[in-house]
Specification:
Blueprint: E1 5-10, E2 15-22, E3 26-34, H1 36-40, H2 47-69, E4 78-84, H3 88-104, E5 109-113, H4 114-120, E6 132-137, E7 142-149, E8 152-158, H5 164-174, H6 182-189, H7 213-228, H8 235-260, E9 265-269, H9 276-289, E10 294-297, H10 307-319
Parallel strand pairs: 1-4, 4-5, 6-9, 9-10
Antiparallel strand pairs: 1-2, 2-3, 6-7, 7-8
The structure holds 5'-O-[(R)-(carboxyoxy)(hydroxy)phosphoryl]adenosine and zinc ion.
């Protein structure tokens, strides 16, 4: 039959990514142009710098995505694009490029929520069954999401301050790790031991909300106090202790949410879902406490921002007749 090819655009933060996805589950191409090096010296993403990079990269990424997938515009079924949440100037580049392609080639335009995109990275691993729960952990978000059916998302709990990835990046900075710090801290954590007793905020709180700013402050104080006393702390142990605290809270809240809202599947997704400590812990917990719930972990390579996940989510939205018109705008504060 007809090939169902979605051309997907992602530009919400610091990666310009364009992908071609077939039938929502086969990645024909997934070009990712990262700008991390340009943001490193600022210690985080500078919105103006991000927008400029997206403009410079988008045409090249588009050409590469099509040629690597070995398709032409005439082969495409639809164009999907992230329209929020994210940085407004960054989002606008992807939205504008997607609109231009859709308009010029008479293709339907499919609006995709970036966070839904992260969840759909899991669809490259397994079919989705509902109800479903997602633990979404990224640089900007930390959420437990209940998904009653396709496209029906309800946030059960979210962070009240820093996102998990943001906490990694901020404590990483104190240890001299450049942005983004998550992967390095994760590696150090595996070489150290949980010897510092950092707080586990809201672990016993009845809500499904999270808080990481207390942990971050406690970590920074510990390091600064040691510096003042001219004591050098073991960075691997610091990393292991920090990570244990983050993982404990994420796992505990997920466990309780699953007790209260039983689901067929749990999807672990977002940039921080690449964390090996978190993956191991959730895998073990699910096996021991929720054997009836299938765990779907987004592939490590697709945890960070990429357009393939937008293509997967866009495919489902397309089937549900979701369409945007030429007045589609970026929605930086978009929620589910
Ligand atoms: O989803 P993502 O690529 O961008 C956002 O939408 O935010 O997530 C990026 C975040 C960064 O904060 C980065 O430090 C974190 O994910 N991260 C990790 C790991 N790999 C990336 N955090 C912990 N452990 C990792 N292995
Ligand atoms: Zn993201």
């Amino acid at each position: 039959g007809e090939r169902n090819l979605i051309l997907a655009f992602e530009s919400s933060c610091d990666e310009t990514s364009i992908a071609v996805v077939e039938d929502g589950r086969t990645i024909l191409s997934n070009i990712i142009a990262t700008q991390i090096d340009s943001h490193k010296r600022f210690g985080g993403v500078v919105p103006e710098v991000a927008s400029r990079h997206h403009i410079e990269q988008v045409t090249r990424c588009l050409k590469e995505a099509l040629s690597k997938a070995n398709v032409t515009y005439a082969d495409l079924t639809a164009v999907a694009v992230t329209y929020g949440p994210g940085l407004v100037g960054a989002l606008l580049i992807g939205v504008t490029a997607a609109k231009a392609v859709a308009f010029a080639h008479h293709l339907p335009l499919i609006p995709v929520n970036h966070m839904a995109g992260h969840i759909y990275a899991g669809r490259f691993v397994s079919d989705f069954e509902f109800p479903q729960m997602a633990l979404l952990v990224s640089g900007g978000h930390t959420e437990l999401v209940y998904i009653e059916s396709e496209n029906d998302f309800k946030i059960l709990g979210e962070t009240r301050d820093d996102a998990a990835g943001e906490a990694y990046d901020k404590i990483g900075r104190v240890l001299g790790v450049t942005y983004p710090a998550g992967k390095t801290i994760d590696q150090w954590a595996h070489q150290g031991e949980d010897t510092f007793d950092f707080p586990r905020a809201m672990e016993k709180d009845a809500s499904y909300d999270f808080s990481f700013s207390g942990l971050k402050s406690s970590f920074i104080n510990t390091v600064h106090n040691a510096e003042q006393r001219k004591v050098t702390l073991n960075k691997e142990d610091l990393a292991a202790s920090f990570q244990q605290s983050v993982v404990d809270v994420l796992a505990e809240k997920t466990d309780r949410a699953l007790d209260r809202f039983p689901v067929k599947q749990l999807v672990l997704a977002g940039g921080v879902a690449a964390n090996l400590g978190l993956r191991e812990r959730i895998e073990r917990d699910m096996h021991q406490k929720h054997p009836a719930t299938k765990l779907i972990m987004a592939p490590i390579k697709l945890c960070g921002d990429n357009a393939a996940m937008i293509g997967a989510a866009g495919y489902v939205a397309y089937q549900h007749q979701k369409r945007a018109q030429m007045d589609l705008n970026a929605e930086p504060g978009l929620s589910f």
